[in-house]
Each structure stands twice: as structure tokens, then as C-alpha cells.
Amino acid sequence: MRQMTNTSRVLLVEDEALVSDMVAEVLAEHGFEVHAVPDARGALEHLMEGAPCDILFTDINLPGGVDGAVLARLARALRPKLAVVYASGAIGSLHDLVAVSGSTFVPKPYDPERVCALLDQYAQAAHGGSTIHH
Predict the structure, then answer these.
(1) What pLDDT does residue 85 have?
(2) Which residues constitute the domain of residue 104?
């Protein structure tokens, strides 16, 4: 496994604890700083506190009445340059939801290693590197 050396901060929003723990662990192994929350409320609190965040990686289907699509729009209102990556097993593509511009969709089940590679592309683009290839 290749160790990434980025310093990007990922806000992981996933209500399934086992999935969240697994993804957070793999992201941390790849050099990402991860803050995991189970719902949109926790994510918005994190962003409103002014916590550093480069990438929002959110499930679409979240508990609490605010789904990942709405969360992304609210997050972008707070942080206009925030990179957004959606994940869902119930929705087939970005065309199935009202997505924020420049976002990416990852269908579940996904390979956490591939997600790390995608997030690393976002990190490189944010730091003046290459563009994102979907």
C-alpha cells in the first residue's frame, strides 16, 4: 500500500459506523486528517466552528432529515471552495440528484483505496497540482 503525504482534511459523513470506521482508517493510512460524523448536523457544526476542511465526503442517505445533497449545498454556502464527493448505494449517479458544481459521485459499495486515490486528486488540485479526472 502506497503512503500518501498530503495534509488534506476530510470531513467524512457516514451514518453506518462500520463503514465510517473502515473508510476513516484507510484515509488516515493515506495521510489524510479525518473528522468523521454520523449526520449532517455534526458536519455543519464542524464547519461552522471554523475547523479546517478541504474535502467533504458524504453519504447521500443520512439520518436526521438533511441528506447529503442538501448538506453539500449548505457546506458550499459556508465554504465555497470545498471539494465535495458523494457516495450512495441507492442513487446511481450524479444525474439522480441535484449536486453542487464540480462534485464527484462514488457508487456503493466502493473500494476505499480507490476513494483515497480520488481524494488525493482533489488534494493535489487544491494545492496547485493536476485537475480532477472522474
Answers:
(1) 96
(2) 9-126
